[in-house]
Amino acid sequence: MKPIKSRLENELCALNEAEEVMKGLGFSYGGNWDYDHGYFDYKLDDEVGYTFLRVPFKAVDGELDKKDTVIQLGEPFLLAHKYQIGLDDNAEAGNISGSFNQFSEPQDPDASIDKKWISIGEDLVKKIETALLN
Questions:
Q1: Cα–Cα distance for residue pair 82/51, rounded to 1 Å
Q2: What SUPFAM superfamilies does the database record attribute to this sequence (predicted)?
């Protein structure tokens, strides 16, 4: 995880406004929320795992299933995860265990982040700042 300093941190805005701006920039938040907090995600890379720029937010007035909710933005950060190549070290054979344990353990759940993604992430954060705060 790599935090990105930003003027977004602690800013308040309407969820529907933030959602419109973020979706316009290529972010999503479909499955990344609960009733009181969530994340806007931008997928940067998914070649051998994934790298996301993530902007956290929490509800401060209302719940996230309502469009008039006021949210507070958190500090953006880059998140990387590398998939394990090959078979899972702890794989178990059998129909029952295979039904429940079908995903391999991550090779590196907090992988280092390539400098090119840091630069791209910082540029995206500036675009969000311009769109939401000006």
A1: 9
A2: YugN-like
Q: Which residues are within 8 A (CB) of 125 and not within 5 positions of it... i.e. 6 or more apart?
A: 4, 6, 8, 53, 55, 76
Residue from 33, 36, 22, 23 nearest 70 by CA: 36
In tens, the pLDDT along 82-94 reads 766 555 555 555 5
> Alpha-carbon distance 123 to 10, whole Å?
19
- Please list the residues that pair with 42 across neighbouring strands: 53
* Ordered structural domains, the chain, with CATH: 2-133 (3.30.310.100)
Nearest to 80 by CA among 104, 126, 47: 47
pLDDT in tens, 6-39: 999 999 999 999 999 999 999 998 667 788 899 9
Strand partners, 110: none
Contacts of 29 (CB under 8 A, 6+ apart): 19, 22, 38, 39, 40, 41
Q: Which residues contact 2 (CB under 8 A, 6 or more apart)?
A: 77, 78, 113, 118, 121
